[in-house]
């Protein structure tokens, strides 16, 4: 009896989105540019990696071929001829180049509405929103109130935050209200509580998520965000693949950020982990526990949060190589009728200006011992991924997308 596993490599885009120019992202290509920089010796990391990008296992599943199909160019170090997978390219119909939009569409539900965003001004948040937030959360005030990169804003305002007890509130070009606060000086549970209040206040503005960003350390040099990030997200507008599989009485394993991204809806088993290796371990553990018709989905957030937003090309290359090195373990655990899909939710080209996501197409790398290799082309919506999994698991077709299997 079939099972399905999705490894969502957060932000591992492959360029070529036809609407990229509308986002200022024409030419952005996360995997393509990392491979180019690596081949040019611009992604070396002393003692960790050097030279061309080495991801032989993803490449065998069709990564190089997918980048070529998406962007027209084969990146250096990758091959155009996959060895066993069925490869293709996903194009997003949802307007947001953000995590919930990408994930919901992959699970069969494109986002039909416009998210709310905060303007590129200082202050960025509406004063009446902040006044109400301060009143209800019983705060002495807030810091930040602007667009910022999370690590930079903590370095800038972390000490003042510790001194004053004012949480650091910031946003980005995504539909987010983020709150950074010190885990011990401010308190983790208190941070979560004020995030819930912020979520109630921002949901009517169609803000997709409030994100708790706890950190530790006492000075800019030692401040470090912890693994206790928590996302408070609005729920998808229709039942997703997760809801549909759970409603059919099957297991749904949500690993890493997945449960938060779908607001817990349709999740029967939630597993947490920090870092690529732990998240990979959790995925293998879920495969041990998973019964027939189970759906397992893991979000590998580090590509995006640790390397893409930080514009860290060597770090991103090393992370891709680390993930790739574990793939054979996962593949060796696949049962005959298990389906494995590697994909992404948006791009975050670390060679691109700024620190935000990039509008890109994503790889769809499909493997099952039961499937002959082949090409699935450029899919006109990420929802084709969800519908393919639904068909594989024997669920009735949904409203969006078509199976490529
Ligand atoms: O700079 P940091 O705090 O990592 O923020 C990033 O993380 C947010 C959620 O993925 C994005 O909106 C982006 O701004
Ligand atoms: Mn993402
Ligand atoms: Mn991100």
Describe the SSE topology.
Blueprint: E1 3-9, H1 30-39, H2 56-60, H3 63-71, E2 86-90, H4 99-106, H5 127-137, E3 143-147, H6 150-164, E4 168-171, E5 176-182, H7 183-202, E6 209-216, E7 224-225, E8 230-233, H8 241-247, E9 252-255, H9 258-261, E10 269-271, H10 275-289, E11 295-300, H11 302-308, H12 313-332, E12 338-343, E13 362-367, E14 374-379, H13 383-393
Parallel strand pairs: 1-11, 1-12, 2-14, 3-4, 5-6, 9-10, 9-11
Antiparallel strand pairs: 2-13, 4-5, 6-7, 6-8, 12-13
Helix pairs in contact: 1-12, 5-7, 10-12, 11-12
Bound molecules: 1-O-phosphono-alpha-D-ribofuranose (R1P) and manganese (II) ion (2 copies).
1-O-phosphono-alpha-D-ribofuranose binds next to strand 5 and strand 6.
Question: Could you please describe the fold and organization of this structure?
Answer:
This protein is α/β, with parallel strands linked by helices and 405 residues long. The chain is built from 13 helices and 14 strands. The strands form two sheets. An eight-stranded mixed beta sheet has the order 10-9-11-1-12-13-2-14, with helices on both faces. Strands 3, 4, 5, 6, 7 and 8 form a six-stranded mixed beta sheet that branches. It binds 1-O-phosphono-alpha-D-ribofuranose and manganese (II) ion (2 copies).
């Amino acid at each position: 009896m079939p099972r399905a596993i999705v490894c969502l490599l957060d932000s591992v885009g492959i360029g070529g989105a036809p609407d990229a120019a509308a986002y200022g992202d024409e030419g952005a290509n996360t995997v393509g540019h990392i491979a180019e920089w690596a081949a040019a010796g611009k992604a070396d990391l002393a003692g960790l990696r050097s030279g061309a990008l080495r991801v032989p296992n993803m490449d065998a599943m069709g990564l190089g071929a997918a980048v070529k199909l998406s962007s027209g160019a084969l990146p250096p170090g990758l091959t155009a001829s996959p060895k066993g997978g069925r490869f293709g390219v996903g194009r997003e119909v949802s307007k947001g180049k953000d995590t919930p939009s990408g994930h919901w569409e992959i699970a069969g539900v494109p986002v039909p509405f416009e998210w709310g965003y905060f303007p590129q001004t200082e202050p960025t948040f509406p004063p009446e929103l902040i006044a109400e937030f301060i009143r209800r959360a019983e705060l002495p005030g807030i810091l930040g109130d602007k667009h910022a990169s999370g690590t930079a804003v903590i370095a800038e305002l972390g000490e003042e935050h510790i001194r004053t007890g004012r949480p650091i509130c910031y946003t980005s070009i995504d539909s987010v209200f983020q709150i950074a606060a010190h885990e011990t000086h401010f308190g983790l549970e208190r941070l979560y509580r004020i995030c819930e209040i912020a979520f109630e206040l921002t949901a009517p503005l169609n803000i997709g998520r409030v994100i708790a960003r706890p950190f530790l350390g006492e000075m800019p040099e030692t401040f470090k965000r912890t693994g206790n990030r928590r996302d408070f997200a609005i729920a998808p507008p229709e039942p997703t693949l997760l809801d549909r599989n759970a409603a059919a009485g099957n297991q749904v394993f949500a690993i890493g950020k997945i449960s938060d991204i779908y607001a817990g809806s349709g999740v029967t088993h939630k597993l947490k982990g920090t870092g690529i290796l732990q998240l990979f371990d959790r995925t293998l553990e879920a495969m041990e526990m998973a019964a027939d018709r189970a759906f397992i989905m893991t979000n590998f957030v580090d590509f995006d949060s640790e390397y893409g937003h930080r514009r860290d090309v060597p770090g991103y290359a090393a992370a891709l190589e680390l993930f790739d090195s574990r793939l054979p373990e996962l593949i060796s655990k696949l049962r005959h009728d298990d389906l494995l899909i590697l994909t992404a939710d948006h791009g975050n080209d670390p060679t691109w200006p700024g620190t935000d996501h990039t509008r890109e197409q994503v790889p769809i790398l499909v493997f099952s011992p039961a499937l002959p290799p082949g090409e699935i082309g450029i899919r006109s919506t990420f929802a084709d991924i969800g519908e393919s999994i639904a068909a594989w698991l024997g669920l009735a077709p949904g409203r969006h997308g078509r199976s490529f299997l």
